[in-house]
Structure formats: C-alpha cells, structure tokens
Amino acid sequence: MTILFFWWLGLLAFRVCVLNCGCDRGCLLWMNAAVYAITMRFWSSVLNCACSYIKSLPVVAIVDEFGNNLGLKGLDIAVAGRNLKHCKSYISLRAPEHMGSSSFLWNFTKKFITAGLITVTVSDRYATVVPVRGGSMSPTLNPKTGSGMEDISDDYVLVEKFCLGRYKFSRGDVVVFRSPLNHKETHIKRIVALPNEWFDNRDYNDVVKIPYGHIWVEGDNSASSMDSTSFGPIPLGLVQGRVTHVVWPPQRIGAVKNTPPQRLPSPPQGLPSV
C-alpha cells in the first residue's frame, strides 16, 4: 500500500509538470487515467488493511479469548451475548490504556487522507475556487471602489471544469488559462473569438482568422489587460475552466454574465464562411 501511495504522489507530481509544460490534451487524459487507476487500487488496499487492522484489535482478541474460556469455538455471538455483562467487565479490565488515543489517531488520519484525496480530485476534475487579481476584468470582476488600483478588492470566483471534456465554450465566456508566456501564471479573460472564426483586430486594423484549436481572449478593461492583443491566440490546452459565479465577498455573490462581443465581421471577399 505504501508503494502505491508513493506511485500516486509521483504520478500526480508528474502530471503537474506536464501541465506546466503545456502538453496536449491527449497526454493529460492518459495521465488522468493512470492517476485514477492507481487511486482505486490504493483505496482497495486501504480497505483490506483496515479489515486486517480491525481483526487484530485487542478488543477482538480479548472477546475471542473470553469465548474460548467459555468453551466456545471462536467467537459464538449467540452464547457470548448471554454473558454480555461479564464480557464488558472482562474487556474493561484487560483493554490497554492507550487504545482510545490510537483509535482516535487512526480515525483522524483516515478522515484527513480521504478529505485530501477528495479535494484534489474535485478541484482537478470538476470545480475549484480561485482569486481574481488586478483590474483587467473590471467592472465584471474586481470592480473599482475608488480611483486607484489599491481600491480594487479581490473577488473569488467558482471555476467549473466540465467544459474541458470537449472544449464547449461560447463567445463571451470568462475563462481561466495559463499564460502562454509563463506557464506558472494564470489569467482570467473573456473569449472574444472561437477557433476558425474571423476576428476584427482593432489594434492592427486588420481582420484575422483564429487558428484551429485556439481562442482569442481579452479583458473587459482593455486599458490594463495582458491578453491576446499582447501574446496572440491561446491554445485550448492552456484553458483550465470557465468562470460561472462570484462566491466572495458576500455582497458580490452572483452569476458571471456571458457578454458576447460584437466584433465578428464577415470573412474577406472570396473566402468561405466558417
């Protein structure tokens, strides 16, 4: 079981490294399958060890010894039940003093490990909560309360990851993604154009086509936003999820609206529509 646990940790660490390297989606799916297979095998081993541990508890041995003293083969519940009062007294006299503390420690460890694994799995596959830094998405996120940047309060948003299964995005969705310039950084921007769409790039006064497997993202506050106008279209493999709700502070709790941009011209003359 210990070997499986360290295998699980190693695969999880390797998966994080793969994410930081911007690997394609297919490799990540294989990594997820390996992690979950070892996770299931690990918990199967945990249950087997737990059963063995329960069988080896002093209480079980004491009750079994009491049954043998009564002339029983093994632990006959029906007969031992008639002598329950004597059995309780016998156990209370013979049970070690440290049994209560070790049992509490074991239960706490099991709950801690279970909670940790559930948290990692849920945040990796289903949903997570992330803070919003800076004012690039103001006023949708982190609205200014004054004139300076110091007056911006951080919003915490709920990010759902079901959309990553088939990359089901729409124009106007607010997404979280890793920076193509520095994979250790994450950004939150709005999708302006989807793959294979024509896009009116106002910064270069030109109409461009978004490559397959890429999206064009911009901040709602373009004056202070590091987005596709700086590093171009981003690969869908860098997207980590879609922002659905603001969950903190309390006065800001609510859904994040999808606001489709009106910047999608027709394709240049002579080219097919997509």
Automatic annotation (TrEMBL):
Family: Belongs to the peptidase S26 family. IMP2 subfamily.
GO molecular function, one term: serine-type endopeptidase activity
Alphabetized Pfam families for the sequence: Peptidase_S26 (PF10502)
UniProt-listed SUPFAM superfamilies: LexA/Signal peptidase
Localization, UniProt: Mitochondrion inner membrane
Record flagged with keyword 4Fe-4S: no
Domain (Peptidase S26) ranges: 106-195, 205-248
Protein name: Mitochondrial inner membrane protease subunit 2
Composition skew (Pro residues), residue ranges: 262-274
Species name: Clitoria ternatea (Butterfly pea)
Its membrane topology: Single-pass membrane protein
Residues at the catalytic site: S136, K189
Chain intervals for the UniProt region annotation (Disordered): 254-274
Record key words, sorted: Hydrolase, Membrane, Mitochondrion, Mitochondrion inner membrane, Protease, Signal, Transmembrane, Transmembrane helix
Top-rank lineage group of the source organism: Eukaryota
Listed GO biological process terms: protein processing involved in protein targeting to mitochondrion; signal peptide processing
A single Gene Ontology CC term: mitochondrial inner membrane peptidase complex
Residues spanning the signal sequence: 1-18
